[in-house]
Write a structure and sequence with these properties.
By secondary structure, this protein is of the alpha+beta class. It has helices at residues 19-22, 64-74, 119-126, 129-139, 149-153, 162-202; strands spanning 16-18, 23-27, 35-36, 41-44, 49-50, 53-54, 60-62, 81-84, 93-94, 102-103, 106-111, 156-158. The radius of gyration is 20 Å and the shape is globular.
Length: 203
């Protein structure tokens, strides 16, 4: 269940568009700024994006000057999508920004003011089984799994009307709540079984 991916039924009448045609697709810095021990700003890489959010618990810090240089190229705003490009690729998330940070070797997907795509819909499409398999096939054969910025820009995604995108988002969220509930139930039963086994051994 931890590897659950959304299943999206694609209507063949929906137009297919390249991601780079409807979104501003960039990436983070390729440089390696000098890290600082304190009073710095987080530099987010692929390893910090997991479980549907940014994990700030083990992150390298950079200076305000280096953050400014990175943000001139790839400023992350609330509602943008970030997605690992190296190592564990895929796993896109919609950013809920509550602090300043920079990104390195991470794809950044920004949405135009007049966009015809909802960020959460695009995120779910990018996280679907179909595209996850596509990422793995593209990165196969290399020692370090990697997908390029050009590859991400050229990804073709179905683009139904906005109202249908909203319906799809709501449906996936409902399914995710059911899956999460089942996963919690399994973990609770595993704990109960362990307790029973421990008591048997004590006897």
């Amino acid at each position: 269940m931890e590897s659950w991916k959304p299943q999206i039924e694609i209507n063949p009448e929906w137009p297919m568009v390249k991601l780079g045609e409807i979104c501003d697709v960039r990436d983070g810095t390729h440089d390696s700024p000098k890290y600082v021990q304190q009073d710095g700003f987080p530099l987010i890489t692929s390893k910090n994006i997991k479980d549907g959010k940014i994990d700030f618990s083990e992150v390298n810090l950079i200076t305000k000057e280096d953050l400014h240089k990175i943000n001139e190229r790839s400023m992350v705003d609330d509602g943008d999508i970030v997605m690992p490009m190296i190592g564990t690729i895929g796993n896109p998330i919609v950013v809920r920004k509550d602090r300043e940070f920079g990104i390195k070797n991470v794809a950044l997907i920004k949405f135009y003011a007049d966009t015809k795509a909802i960020n959460y819909y695009v995120k779910e499409i990018l996280d679907s089984n179909l595209l996850s398999t596509h990422y793995q096939n593209q990165s196969a054969g290399s020692t370090q799994k990697f997908i390029s910025l050009g590859f991400i820009r050229s990804l073709e995604i179905p683009l139904p009307p906005l109202e249908i995108q909203r319906v799809i988002i709501d449906k996936i969220e409902a399914e995710r709540k059911v899956v999460d509930g089942c996963w919690e139930l399994i973990k609770n039963y595993e704990l109960k079984i362990k307790d029973v086994i421990d008591k048997v051994w004590e006897e």
